[in-house]
Amino acid sequence: xxxxxxxxxxxxxxxxxxxxxxxxxxxxxxxxxxxxxxxxxxxxxxxxxxxxxxxxxxxxxxxxxxxxxxxxxxxxxxxxxxxxxxxxxxxxxxxxxxxxxxxxxxxxxxxxxxxxxxxxxxxxxxxxxxxxxxxxxxxxxx
Amino acid sequence: xxxxxxxxxxxxxxxxxxxxxxxxxxxxxxxxxxxxxxxxxxxxxxxxxxxxxxxxxxxxxxxxxxxxxxxxxxxxxxxxxxxxxxxxxxxxxxxxxxxxxxxxxxxxxxxxxxxxxxxxxxxxxxxxxxxxxxxxxxxxxxxxxxxxxxxxxxxxxxxxxxxxxxxxxxxxxxxxxxxxxxxxxxxxxxxxxxxxxxxxxxxxxxxxxxxxxxxxxxxxxxxxxxxxxxxxxxxxxxxxxxxxxxxxxxxxxxxxxxxxxxxxxxxxxxxxxxxxxxxxxxxxxxxxxxxxxxxxxxxxxxxxxxxxxxxxxxxxxxxxxxxxxxxxxxxxxxxxxxxxxxxxxxxxxxxxxxxxxxxxxxxxxxxxxxxxxxxxxxxxxxxxxxxxxxxxxxxxxxxxxxxxxxxxxx
Lengths: 142, 410
Description:
The structure holds two protein chains of two kinds.
Chain A (H helix, E strand, L loop, with lengths): L1 H4 L3 H21 L5 H30 L8 H17 L1 H4 L4 H8 L6 H25 L5
Chain B lengths: L19 H28 L29 H27 L12 H28 L9 H34 L32 H19 L1 H4 L39 E4 L5 E3 L1 H6 L3 E8 L5 E10 H8 L6 E6 L8 E5 H5 L4 E6 L2 E2 L9 E3 L12 E7 L1
Parallel strand pairs in B: 1-10
Antiparallel strand pairs in B: 1-2, 3-4, 4-7, 5-6, 5-10, 7-8, 7-9
């Protein structure tokens, strides 16, 4: 039995317990108004990462390093990565997507988010450039 | 059957960094962070006291969050738990991406399922990844007011969290032994001593590359880069949770302007000048007979002043000095001095949050006020003029504005 299943009975029972609880929660969620959208967003979250985000950044990285791993790659990777991360997490404020709702509820408006994101990105690139300059001058192997 | 080309072939994978130790490190960090996020999330559910009146925004059939009274102290309690929920969630985002990167070859393993055990395990991992992505996406969108998902955020986020907890628990049952094995064989911190020149592949594990490239970054370098991403997200947002001068440092926080943000304007709540003019009366009921009080009469009652923090579910907070009539005083005037429950209703004509029910311990706290003034001035219309509730530790939206009636129950 163990050989056929591929693991221990504890493995099977703990998975059945977790799946039962998850199924209960999913059934509750699927009773909500707009349950099709809940389902689409659950699947969409996986698709967004596995079929879009990961292939995009990994392909970019491979293309950039195709010839020979450059010693200075990380001076570009880190600021670009941090800047992209800020955009990923704060896309709605940076692109003003929620502004209509925000103004309606708060009576205020969003100003300068895209500008601040760009300025912070510029500072990150400059800081990485300065660090590279200092380290390459001081003869470090990086 | 031969594996399809591309990522289904082992030689596709080139990074020499992937392996059980690296996954264990990201997994351990993520476990710590997500434990805080999940606990504070369920605490927020408890703070809304769904077992009282019509407070429940989601079903109350899971018992574990309603078995205690939400405390009234310290007054920044909810600002803290919800600030942690949002900001630790942001810090966890880069760690989540790194963790997924470290195990992504497993997504393409060939054949996809070898045994029933592997099938059921992969199903639980699909639920884990889907619910985690769902929680991060909806949480980030909700705190930025982009309701593009067009379903009830509170309910969907709550049930997705239950799926997440179930899937995570069983993931831990399977993977904690794997992580411990990796720590035992390589040391918990020892691989962090390796610079780029000393960085070698891990000796075995199903994510270790068959034909790796030379490393371009050390493991500690990768972990530090992930940390830099977490730090940037924290700095971008945390100021709106802490308040004060830090608010303007939070360069991407949705609530960075002004020291005293408005959650909902009077116009948005459809409050008119006529509703709060000279004819305004506060109705107190629950006692032998209903009592009606004008604003002048309210100002004539015993007043108290307290500095209390108001925390919003979206993770921002504000600390203000409030002056008004203690709820205990109003309970006495209503003729229900030892009220066990209080239904607060707003003049606001519609909306789920036009009413809220408070528990006995909240009414009894001497710092719980029907506030008439904030700072040195009377309330502005957007902040709830003529009268609003302020209860220490209570979620922001339950501090009802434009209060029209208070119903005390024994």
